[in-house]
Please model this.
Amino acid sequence: MRTVVVFLVFVTWVPSLWATDWRAVHDKTIAAIDQLYDLEFAASEKFCNEVIAMAPGDPRGHFVKSMVYYYRMTFQGGAKNDTLYYAFLYHANKVETVCSSLLDQNPNDAKALSYLGGTIGYKGLAHYRRGEMVKAIWEGGKGYGLLERAYALDPQNGDAKMGLGLFQYMISQAPSEVHSLIELAGMSGDRARGLKLMEEASQHGLYAKQEAHRWLVEFYQGEDMPNRAMAHAQVLADRYQRNWWFQQSAADIALFQLHRPERAEQYLVRLSTMQTTPSSELYVHALGRLKLGYMCVLKERYAAAEQHYLSVINGPAEDAQKQDAAFQMGNLMDLQGRSSEAPEWYRRAGGRKDAQSRLSAAMKPAERAMLRIQNAYLAGENLRAIALTDSCRTAGALSSNRSLAISLYFQGTCLNECKQYGRAESVFLEALRYPEMDANVRPFCHWRLGQSYARQDKVAQAKDQWQRALAFDGYASEETLRRRVQREQAALP
Model:
């Protein structure tokens, strides 16, 4: 009798051992995601394995583990790394198996639909990165339909919003030659809705929040919306301070798009000192020092710039980075008027074509003056750029028409930003009179002149200048300018 009682007690007690600790599953999933975005792939996979052991029939651990291999494929050898590609597909297929089992029990399981659609969507992206367009669109169509169902069943599911928004935005940007295939796969794009859904996911997503931030950084840069891109890049760079890619993205947006080098500095310092994997540490540290040197040049902190470049040349760095630093040292010597010291640095820059051209045609005083004006503009120091242009003209330093035209373009741009639209108009008109102006600059000059007119309510003149800007083709950053003109035109009454 006693044996029977003990057995019954054991039977009633054991299920409590089998009960899943869902709080621990959630916490370890978050830990796996955080390690993933810090590029600590082994640590992330370890947490995923723990999640899978606790909840093998739940898609979370399997999904994040598949993303570990997707990111490894991205950062370690690219899309052509067959080993990582097939490892990603293997783990993605496990997600599909788990989700299919859940959907057999409940066809309206919104979370299972969301994970299944997301996994198939990333399989499509992996195929696309390998140039397998038809396969990518076919997978995309299946994922898109599943995410639509998940969102319809649960409109508050932030992770479903992330996947559906990603699809809708990317489809809206697809080249025209694949539109018929996309329609055949049952998909349709919606740029505005895609961005809106991803913004909501970045605020309210559970597990896809950081992924939404990451994609929005990329998309807003393509949209020429650097302030929005920076808002998302800053969230990632500040949270994941061991992810060198996030630090570089935030720094580049601040430096090259916002022209705010002071905002870039903290991210560049992190790049130049951060702990990362042994295979990438040498490259990352040198990258940070190269960009710090560039930032110091913009701010006319020439001695500090020289130290950063020398630390790359004389320290541990890849050969290409040492050549870049040597070329920048040559530029720095020229910029300071120390032209006799420049050729040696250009020779040390190796086989770079621009270094060879500098050896055969040294920087002229007019180029030096123009470069100082350009750097002041790129540093966001509008008043300094305006004053430099005036003083260089008075001193006769802008002696070539090309240098004068480009300098006037930068001065007019700074005058616009200082809301001195009348004077900016005169400066742009003068700049456009010089046929020597670079072909890459002229369409931008028409666009900026249109801005000057528009801010003075000279609507007809503004429209005329923007049409002139749109008439150009084949120049650098053409798509960016076309987007800018379209936005300006849409804002007119």
The longest helix spans residues 82-105. Residues 407 and 440 are 14 Å apart (CA to CA). The chain is about 75% helix and 0% strand.
